[in-house]
Amino acid sequence: MSADGMRRPSLQAERLAALAPTWQVEILAETTSTNAVCAQRARDGAPEGLVVTTEHQYAGRGRLDRVWEMPPRAALATSVLLRPTLPPERWTWLPLMAGVAVARTIEGRLKWPNDVLLGPELKKVCGILVERIETPAGPAAVLGIGINTSLTPDELPIPHATSLQIERGEEVDRTGVLVTLLAEIADAYALLVHDPEELSADYLALSATVGMRVRAELPSGGALAGTASGIDPYGRLLITQADGLTQAVGAGDIVHLRPLD
Ligand code: BT5
């Protein structure tokens, strides 16, 4: 581990162990990707509530084969295993549900579908990658959440990123953020199961996208531009074009969503 990593406090195992039996938190000293480990545990039969986190994730994954980078102990890389009994068409809400939980935890705003933004310039502080895993006990969902807790400006991987420490101007208790995050996930997941309309309203209230003019870049190379006018029951973004036509785009249907103004 680098000198910077060693200077930073490690996660507090005892505080995380106290979250059992709801959450069984496994802390790895280092790993390729917490999502990959959590998915393997799911295939091996791990129950809902397993949480895999690490001090150092060195091959983190984003969407569409993009990479997620974080220095040791300066960020949270966490994957939560759920075994939802939701109808298949409602699984698309899982990434948005995770976004609501993170936004609540760190008082951030949501860029559809599930980037969490912070600060006056609304920079990216968290990325979420939800994967559906087929397992012998049925389909499972791995919610992969990366939060930049204590990165310094020179550690940011891209100019449009930020960290909690940069925005708050004070040191961040990484363990505390994870404890709050898991409580918020439990609440948001309960809403998804029992009161999806309420979750949808909560999502809209936290959205930095709905109401903005946007351009959705499509894998074909084309694009769809217009006003982001809402979220449909499947978690798709509604884009109303200049001619008044509204189209729904799913997270899997686009490469990038960019603000137009
Ligand atoms: C994401 O992908 O934003 C999802 C990232 C999910 C990471 C978590 S960490 C725990 C779990 N285990 C994993 O292996 N993954 C999950 P996407 O929307 O494709 O954005 C990726 C893009 O974000 C990259 O191409 C960079 O431009 C940018 N990026 C990379 N690292 C970043 C960081 N630390 N902070 C902000 N932006 C970052």
Q: Helix and strand layout, with pairings?
A:
Elements: H1 3-7, H2 13-17, E1 24-28, H3 34-43, E2 50-54, E3 60-61, E4 67-68, E5 75-82, H4 94-106, E6 109-111, E7 115-118, E8 123-135, E9 138-148, H5 164-168, H6 174-194, H7 196-206, E10 213-217, E11 223-231, E12 237-240, E13 246-249, E14 256-259
Parallel strand pairs: 1-2
Antiparallel strand pairs: 2-5, 3-4, 5-9, 6-7, 7-8, 8-9, 10-11, 10-14, 11-12, 12-13
Helix pairs in contact: 4-6, 4-7, 6-7
Bound molecules: biotinyl-5-AMP (BT5).
Biotinyl-5-AMP is lined by residues 33-35, 60-64, 66, 68-70, 77-79, 115, 124, 127-129, 144-146, 148, 157-158, 161.
Features:
261 residues, alpha+beta, seven-stranded mixed sheet, five-stranded antiparallel sheet, 27% helix
Number of helices: 7
- Which ligands accompany this protein? biotinyl-5-AMP
| Whole-angstrom Rg | 18 Å
**Sequence of secondary-structure elements:** HHEHEEEEHEEEEHHHEEEEE
Describe the structure.
With 261 residues, the chain is of the alpha+beta class. It has 7 helices and 14 strands. The strands form 3 sheets. The protein has a 7-stranded mixed β-sheet with strand order 1-2-5-9-8-7-6, with helices on both faces. A hairpin with a 5-residue loop joins strand 12 (237-240) and strand 13 (246-249). Helix 4 packs across helix 7 and helix 6 crosses helix 7. The longest helix has 21 residues, at 174-194. The relative contact order is 0.14. The model has no long low-confidence stretch (mean pLDDT 95). It binds biotinyl-5-AMP. Biotinyl-5-AMP (BT5) binds next to helix 3, strand 3, strand 5, strand 8 and strand 9. Biotinyl-5-AMP binds next to helix 3, strand 3, strand 5, strand 8 and strand 9.
